[in-house]
Amino acid sequence: MSTVSARINAGAVVQAPAVSRQPFLELRGLSKSFGSAHAIDAVDLSLAQGEFFSILGPSGCGKTTTLRLIAGFERPRSGRILLEGRDITDQPPEKRPINTVFQSYALFAHLDVAENVAFGLREDGVPKKERLERVNEALSLVRLEELASRRPNELSGGQQQRVALARAVVKRPRILLLDEPLGALDLQLRKTMQIELKALQERLGMTFVYVTHDQEEALTMSDRIAVMRGGRVCQLGSPEDIYDRPTTRYVADFIGASNCLPVTVAHGTREYSTANGIRGPLPDIPYLPQGERAYLVIRPECCHLEPAAGTGLLGRVTEVLFKGMYRSYHVRIEDGTTFTVADPHRPSESRPWTVGDQVRVSWPVNESWLATD
Ligand code: ATP
Q1: In angstroms, what is the span from residue 33 Cα to ligand 1's centroid?
Q2: Among residues 153, 158, 172, 140, which one has the least CA distance to residue 112?
Q3: pLDDT per residue as tens digits for the range 231-289
Q4: Which residue lies with its CA nearest to atom 14 of ligand 1?
Q5: Does the predicted model carry a pTM greater than 0.90?
Q6: At what angle do helices 128-141 and 157-169 cross, to 10 degrees?
Q7: Is the CB of residue 32 below 6 angstroms from any atom belonging to ligand 1?
Q8: Which of 285, 304, 302, 295 has its CA nearest to residue 261?
Q9: What number of other Cβ atoms are within 10 A of residue 286's Cβ?
């Protein structure tokens, strides 16, 4: 977890509080079906207080259902939800110290920014003086004090989303659930808001559970990520764990670009072999699925191209794509697998390889990883 990070604040170095390792929110064997379809199946998760936790996966894998169960908008078929050891499974949503921010901001058009933020406090009967203080505090957290008297239609998409965030945090929930909250924003604004959201979460020290199908977003903001597939959590770990050590080809493909070479692990060796007899060394990893079908996973940025006389897998360049920061070379190797090799771009260096060139693809052996199907 990247939580004991030093931050610069108003010229002083501030040590952010460490995330507690005690279970804060626990999902135990949580399942939910709609008719005969299993939306989520036996999900076990344990979150720490103050953690930025993301649930990542493609459409329909059960992310929103998991979030709605935590919020109390859905009842599980089986399983329990515990908050600080207390069972909240049967508590209605309004009794849970949990708030949700959705992709659609659903702001009240006839109320100004401050009134929108104050709405929930007014409903709860919070006295006026305290309401004003808390609204000002929330607006300052999302840097909207100057726009307090504007109506939603006088705000940009990013500003509207910040109002929705202020409205959610003003009630001081223990947990903030965020369901694709940046989905409606353009790419540039989304990137800015990712940084703002992470900074806000650190300032508040609040537990965030963030649902997204955008792997880069999850990698950028999260302390830990749960990758879901077909209603189950298929890998859980830090962004580095998930990116560098994917346990399955599914995770390797879903999180960033990857080269997945189909291999068999030779019995009693640290060698792989491919169907057409290519052999090579395996990385130093704890579990080798011997004799089983597996995939050697190598990220494009870990691969290098060398002349055909060098070492590595022999192949032919089939495509060269200029991506700005790097050039992407597609190389078809002897067993038919296409490798993608990302070569950092430097304007002073000429483009070394062109389509049709015979090359060798190599990588440092400990920058490869073995994943199962
Ligand atoms: P997306 O990224 O598209 O929002 P998701 O990962 O959040 O997808 P869920 O919305 O949790 O997925 O849906 C999981 C599964 O449950 C899907 O197959 C979906 O069709 C089904 N499902 C979700 N809500 C309902 C519902 N109210 N009635 C019937 N089926 C539902």
Answers
A1: 10
A2: 153
A3: 999 999 999 999 999 999 999 999 988 999 999 988 777 888 888 888 899 988 877 77
A4: 62
A5: no
A6: 130
A7: no
A8: 295
A9: 4
